[in-house]
Amino acid sequence: MAALAADLGVSPTSEAMSLLRRVLGGSEPPSSTPLVVELMGEKNSGPCACCGNDTRSVWGAVHRGEATEAVYYVHWTVGRVREEGAHFDLAVGSWGEGAQPSDRVGVALEFRITEQGPSFMVIDASDGRLLSDRLVARGLTREQVIGTPLAQQAFGIVDAVWFHDERVNEIKGAAG
Predict the structure, then answer these.
(1) In whole angstroms, what is the distance from residue 90 CA to residue 175 CA?
(2) Residue 31's domain spans which residues?
(3) Contact at 8 Å (CB) between 60 and 161?
């Protein structure tokens, strides 16, 4: 079921996935080491020349056990999440001593509120902060991510940030 969600480019909540498994008779996935979010920094910029609002960015790392799985940046226009959404940029791959940007790839997801409700969608990560900060050697396109194990990993990382980084509460609040 998670693979289907990743193929479609959506991220259902863990509660929704659990309900679907019970309704459809599937079993819960085997437990694994949980993801842990480390808050690292934040910045407000603005006012924006086009809308007059501030832009907010927060970033951190997501760990599984002793290993860092990704570094993330979340950015949005303050007071405009409902209209403009938010971006979740991930640098996924090897970190730590000896790791290089070539050991990691950039994956980007966009949060939007649509007529059907709030959703995440994989978008192209071919430019942006991850490349300019030299955290990754290359950003992946949507087509390079959707339908792969990396898509499932990326949605899991975003879920961890969503549930454990209180600095994204404005985004969550706009989702209703």
Answers:
(1) 21
(2) 2-175
(3) yes
d(Cα 74, Cα 167) in Å, to the nearest integer? 9
Terminus-to-terminus CA distance in the chain, angstroms? 25
pLDDT, tens only, 83-134: 999 999 999 999 989 999 999 999 999 999 988 989 999 999 976 667 667 8
Structure tokens at 131: 């490349």
Q: Which two tokens stand for residue 10?
A: 């959506």
Residue with tokens 């809308």: 51
Q: CB of 139 within 8 A of CB of 131?
A: yes
H/E element holding 58? Answer: strand 55-64
The number of distinct structural domains making up the chain is 1
Q: Which two tokens stand for residue 129?
A: 């902060």
Strands 55-64 and 67-77, how do they pair?
A: antiparallel
- pLDDT at residue 154 tops 80: yes
Whether 156 contacts 33, CB under 8 Å? no
How many of the other CB atoms lie within 10 Å of CB of 33? Answer: 10
Q: Which of 111, 86, 106, 114 is nearest to 154 (CA)?
A: 106
Q: Which two tokens stand for residue 53?
A: 């609002």
